[in-house]
Amino acid sequence: MNSWGDERIQLGHGGGGRMTGRLIRDLILPYLDRGHLRILPDAALLTDLQGHLAYTTDSFVVSPIFFPGGDIGSLAVHGTCNDLACGGARPRFLSLGLILEEGLPLNDLQTIIQSIAAAAEKAEVEVVTGDTKVVPKGSADKIFINTSGIGVVEALPAPSMERIEPGDHILLSGPVGNHGLAVMLSRAEFSFDFNLVSDSASIWPVVQRLVALGPALKFLRDPTRGGLAATLTEMASASGLGVRVHESAIPLDTSVVAASEILGIDPLQAANEGKVVAVIDGEKSQEALNLLRDCDLALGATIIGEFIPDRPKMVVMRTRIGGERIVPEPSGELLPRIC
Amino acid sequence: MNSWGDERIQLGHGGGGRMTGRLIRDLILPYLDRGHLRILPDAALLTDLQGHLAYTTDSFVVSPIFFPGGDIGSLAVHGTCNDLACGGARPRFLSLGLILEEGLPLNDLQTIIQSIAAAAEKAEVEVVTGDTKVVPKGSADKIFINTSGIGVVEALPAPSMERIEPGDHILLSGPVGNHGLAVMLSRAEFSFDFNLVSDSASIWPVVQRLVALGPALKFLRDPTRGGLAATLTEMASASGLGVRVHESAIPLDTSVVAASEILGIDPLQAANEGKVVAVIDGEKSQEALNLLRDCDLALGATIIGEFIPDRPKMVVMRTRIGGERIVPEPSGELLPRIC
Question: Which residue in A has a C-alpha nearest to residue B332's C-alpha?
Fold first, then answer.
């Protein structure tokens, strides 16, 4: 399917001259151009944005660059779409910054660009501006991608940490840990298969349904680096409230449980890129679950806990056997280059 | 002045947990936060943007990361501001994506962040959203920076390659080659000093004055990678017209001429980040120069050539001795990692 044979990225592909032009024209634009990219302006002109905008950026350094369920390209699109969605915004436009290592096979780059195009089309976003740099062999690891994004805020009032109150419920859109463990497993050399794939996806369709809750939708976060544990501890710390979660309520696929035991990784600390944590007025949380009933991306959505006035800034987990333990903030050292 | 002693970036600084939080809170926010960054939302909320927007992205991989006249941080701010300015837009908001190599001294990072803050303040832009990733030692080269930016278009009609016509003049805002040669010189080990500093700066003040020309301002481009030669050949190729430039009219500092002869680099192919090429209705080019008379960033602004109906897609240079030569598109292999 790919058409570049043995060709590899050379330093000249990043020099801004003829080779750069050919790379962009022949390998990138055929997949990504929807009108804005064709003339390669210094900046894209956006004429139809109305209302409040959300703006975000994310760099992706995941290793390996191809993993079950996705690759660095689809992950970059989803990651930025999801940051916008967590701002209550419909993702609209993306920028794409590529840092390529000399020697990267052009066929690999083509696969990644195709994957970006497919993910962007599915997420209904358009890549409107981009940049390509090349560094010498050994100065990067194959490919790093930065995507920034602009979305139009549809959740009003805008979701904000400051709106969280005691009694609010914490909704999780589905099982966690799949992305992080799929990537970790694809790094290791295992002799058996857990059948684990990344959950990478754009979660705007989930958020879009929750927007119907109006002011009862208080806050949104996608539990990426540091996983659900980092999201919970961050919400407790920033809101100044306590968070109580119920271990038995947190959905985990059996393959995630099995892989996490073998790898010695807490699945609550493993990154996700297709799930969302929503904070919802406690009286409206059942309505929220009803709104998600027909949403493929929210299979397994459930209420996992609530904000409480005591235990300020702490996350307390009710364990399966009826005890309590404190969920600590992940230190961040366990899972490098997971996104 | 810097406060981090011997501390260096560790993998845990990129994990999204406690160490990431501390790095961002203690080393980044004190310099960059102007309100949007403090609560570290997934996406920044922009509520006061009206009109047509320009949107761009650029990754910076310059080596060395510190050079006379700037560093990778100030360069990243200027580069993105200048792409917006070339879209006829006043730069307003930036995103900042950092990819850090394990082992980077925190004092170096602090210097770069301070430099970003100073450049952003001078350019009157605000960093509103960011991301920090860490890769293992040997998987990157110290630090790579991606900045994307949003600006509000003030040049109406928007500058566009398609508006260029035969008879239009080509204005250059000042001497070229300084940035590229300053960076190349700082890589080499020379026993004497050319006193060459990068021209890195935000060129919006130049563009802002040219906006007063109205429709007579046809097109803008900042001659970065591939230098003035790449900008000229690109304009010829994309407009389908010929470009005639006058060698004697192209301003070059004597230090640039001297350094380019020693390094064997054509100064017209060396990158700039503080100059702009403007295409202006031939009858208004003197008015354009008058508008720039009081502008510090446009000292040495001059008309270097014009678009011609014959010689389609070619750049013809009238040499000092009265001959003609064709300016080829730079291949891009000569000057890696210049921005």
Answer: A15
Let me know how long chain B is: 339
Do the beta carbons of residue B257 and residue B175 sit within 8 Å?
no
Asked if B97's CB is within 8 angstroms of A59's CB, the reply is: yes
* Residue B30 phi, psi (nearest 5): -55, -25
Cβ contacts of B268 on chain A, cutoff 8 Å = none
Q: What distance in Å separates the CA atoms of residue B225 and residue B213, rounded to the nearest whole number?
A: 28
Distance between A43 CA and the closest CA of chain B, angstroms: 5
* Cα–Cα distance for residue pair A162/A238, rounded to 1 Å: 8
Are B57 and B97 within 8 A, CB to CB?
no
Size of interface A-B (CB pairs under 8 A): 287
Q: Give residue limits of the domains in chain A.
A: 11-153, 161-326
Give the minimum alpha-carbon distance from A52 to chain B in angstroms, rounded to a whole number: 5
CATH code, residues B11-153: 3.30.1330.10
- Enter the ipTM: 0.95
Give the pTM.
0.96
Select from 3.30.870.10, 3.30.70.60, 3.90.650.10, 2.40.280.10 the CATH code of A161-326: 3.90.650.10
* Sign for the pseudo-dihedral over CA of B68, A133, A42, A123: negative
CA distance linking residue B233 with residue B313, whole number of Å: 8
Q: In the predicted model, is pLDDT for residue A257 greater than 80? A: yes
Considering only CA atoms, which of A183, A35, A25, A198 is closest in space to residue A113? A25
Residue B333 has pLDDT above 70, yes or no: no
